[in-house]
UniProtKB/TrEMBL annotation:
Pfam families: DUF302 (PF03625). Residues 35-96 form the DUF302 domain. It comes from Alkalicoccus saliphilus. It comes from the Bacteria. CDD domains: DUF302. This is DUF302 domain-containing protein. InterPro entries: DUF302, TT1751-like_sf, UCP021774.
Length: 128
């Protein structure tokens, strides 16, 4: 599957906060938290649902894959979205293993498998 998406019993804001804490336990940090709805509203375009985009990274892992191939940088940092859909809060990400298939490097794929497992663990913990 291209993505991992989980349902959250919390609001978008609470889910973002809980994800940040859960990612830290897995040695990842949130580099950027972009409020897409807020920005679109500000620009007069508007968006009905809340939609946040988090950029998540582990500096050690980023260095490791970039030293292996700069092509991995096309998929860094990892994106995680938190949004409302049909009255539910969801959090999801494109699976790192699917993205790194395009890089075609066995070492990078092993790293992507580890990243995916740890990020899924964090996402599941955040929505308990």
């Amino acid at each position: 599957m291209f993505h991992t998406t989980v349902n959250s019993p919390y609001s978008v804001e609470e889910t973002v906060e809980k994800l940040g804490e859960a990612f830290q336990k897995q040695e990842f940090g949130v580099l950027w938290d972009f409020d897409a709805k807020g920005k679109l509203d500000e620009k007069g375009v508007g968006l009905d649902n809340k939609f946040r985009i988090l950029e998540v990274c582990s500096p050690k892992i980023a260095k490791e894959v970039l030293e292996e191939t700069m092509l991995a940088g096309y998929f860094l940092p990892c994106k995680v979205v938190v949004y409302e859909e049909n009255g539910e809060t969801k959090a999801g990400m494109p699976n790192p293993t699917k993205l790194m298939e395009f890089v075609d490097n066995d070492k990078v794929m092993k790293v992507a498998e580890n990243v995916e497992e740890r990020m899924e663990t964090a996402m599941n913990e955040a929505v308990k």
